[in-house]
Amino acid sequence: MALVDREGLVVTANETMGSLLATGTGALAGKAAADLVDLSSDARTWHAYREVLRGRQARLRCTRRLKHPDGHSLWVQVTVTPLPETEKAVLLSVADIGARRELQAQLRHLQMHDPVTRLPNRTLFFERLSAVLEVESYEESGTGRVGLCYLDLDGFKAINDTLGHRVGDRLLAAVAERLTACADEAGYARAATPLVARLGGDEFALLVEDSTGTDQLAELAESVLKALQAPFDLAGQRLSVSASIGVVERHAAGTTATGLMQAADTTLYWAKADGKGRWTLFDPERNAHRMTRQALSSGLRPAIERGEFALEYQPLVGMEDGRVRGVEALVRWHHPQFGTLTPNRFIGLAEEDGSIVQLGRWALKSACRQARRWQLERPDEPPIFVSVNVAVRQVWDSDLVADVAGTLAETGLAPHLLQLELTESAVMGSAGRPLQALQALSDMGVRIAIDDFGTGYSNLAYLSRLPVSVLKLDGSFVRGFQYEGTGVHPNPADEVIVEAMIQLAHRLGLTVTAECVETSAQASRLRRIGCDTGQGWLYSRPVPPDRISELVDPEACHPS
Q: For the GGDEF domain, which residue ranges apply (predicted)?
């Protein structure tokens, strides 16, 4: 402690002050206190100190780093407190806080580092990333770009589950050493070494400040994959591990830590989906498709409730007389943002999240109601049937038989005027509940059709035991017929295969519909080999329900 007059000069000091500053106690008298404890190095502290000397401020407290005469740094806490007015002095006290600062540094290190790998942890990583993305950090110098390799280990959970967490922790530590070596090598002769951090579990990140482009990040990712190829020897356990890496590289300007990590996480998912053991670079177009897919998925159920779906119908035409025998109902989504979407854009999503049950139930009722309306509008003409697509999940996740029975009863449509289409893979794998449902529907009088026949895993012996009445030949077979009359020789194998399938179907008592009929030549050849009905642009594209009435005219769908 020291007594300082109103001019800022030391009047007297105790021995501890002399020892702390490595000067004799007598030598301190008359010296400027501000110089002894560095109070004038910044304007704010200097002003506060002057205010205390003048009696205008109650107290000053600050932390200072002093240079000790023997060369080491000394952290002290300085407090300046006014004494009674009669003393015309202030009390300066200086406390050595070096041990406390060291403890704080140790605690911060523990707080900011992973205990298993001793790498920076998630907290320190994001602190460093945020600092990199601050405007001042990239405007003053550097390339103004940032790169990130975000990786996790393939199959690490299996190692933890089978060999225990102790072995798993040893593996993580060994991986951390190799990643650090890769970062050190990548940082050689460069401005900065990539920061390696463990973000949690088996996830690691390598942050590259002032990156020079995607080539630098690709090179780093390749070196990481190569480094992890060699087996790990861990206390008698020889383990092999690979990694999937998401790579993102972009301008720091306009980038947020959250946005960068989302991009890295998405790209890591792509690397795993593409086969694991590889790195994948962030692709804005692929990400846009993913975002669109996510937007569609999240909007499916509300869209059904808002009535954004509609049905179009494509005629199924008799090959012999060209009359419309039936129609296939095809669902369309009139999306407020993306426009009219065809089933290939959303049916897969609906099957994934289960909304296909609700959507399928709506399509079934709408199609049956429309078919019954056509029948009532044309009481003197043979009625046309309606064909509705059914996903296998509808059979598992709902009572399809009850839904169909209820819909037929509600709409008044006869069962034989309803055809349900299931894909070949779904029907051929039917057993238990699905097979019982198909049989019950068939017994009810509803026709069952196998869609896209010939593309799945056909078990012809099993086919004879299924309650199926119609085979729809996949369009890939029919397209082989389109060369007739063009000067290109058709492949005779196409016709042989199709003719064989048609004959087989007829022997089993089934009728055959050919999909994707686009030319008169195709229609003629299909008619010649015995195909029953055709469907395709030759007859009509999918159209709204009011157009079907025009096409029901016997002459309307004759191929020209």
A: 144-284
Distance CA 317, CA 424 (A): 22
Q: Where are the beta strands (DSSP E) in 342-463?
A: 385-389, 418-423, 447-453
CA 287 to CA 451: how far, in whole Å? 32
Other CB atoms within 10 A of residue 58 CB: 9
**What's the pLDDT at 475?**
83
In terms of phi and psi (left: phi > 0; alpha: psi -120 to 50; beta: otherwise), the region of 413 is: beta
The answer to whether 151 touches 244, Cβ cutoff 8 Å, is: yes
Tokens of 41: 């190095």
Q: Is the dihedral of CA 274, 278, 284, 290 positive or negative?
A: positive
Tell me the residue length of the chain.
560
pLDDT (0 to 100) of residue 555? 52
DSSP tag of 91: E
Nearest to 60 by CA among 87, 86, 33: 33
The residue to which tokens 């920076």 are assigned: 120
Find the distance separating the first CA and the last CA of the chain, reported in whole Å.
Answer: 110
pLDDT at residue 457, rounded to an integer? 54
Q: What does the alpha-carbon distance between residue 280 and residue 282 come to, in Å, rounded to a whole number?
A: 7
Per DSSP, the three-state class of 21 is coil
3-state SS assignment for residue 272: helix
**Listing from the earlier edge strand, what are the strands of the sheet with 242-251?**
195-200, 203-209, 145-154, 242-251, 279-281
- The CA distance from 423 to 515, in Å, is 13
Report the run of H or E that residue 452 belongs to, with start and end.
strand 447-453
pLDDT, position 560: 41
Helix (H) or strand (E) holding 24: none
State residue 53 phi and psi, 5-degree precision. -60, -35
C-alpha R_g of the chain: 39
**Cα–Cα distances in angstroms (integers) from residue 100 to residues 92, 95, 106, 522, in the given order:** 20, 11, 10, 89
Lookup: tokens for 316:
């199924």
Long-range pairs for 338-346: beta carbons < 8 A, 24 or more residues apart: 338/292, 338/296, 341/296, 343/389, 345/296, 346/296, 346/300
Report phi then psi at 149, rounded to 5. -110, 115
Q: How far is CA 215 from the centre of its chain?
A: 24
- In angstroms, rounded to a whole number, what is the distance separating the alpha carbons of residues 207 and 249? 10
pLDDT per position as a tens digit, 309-342: 999 999 999 999 889 999 999 999 999 988 899 9
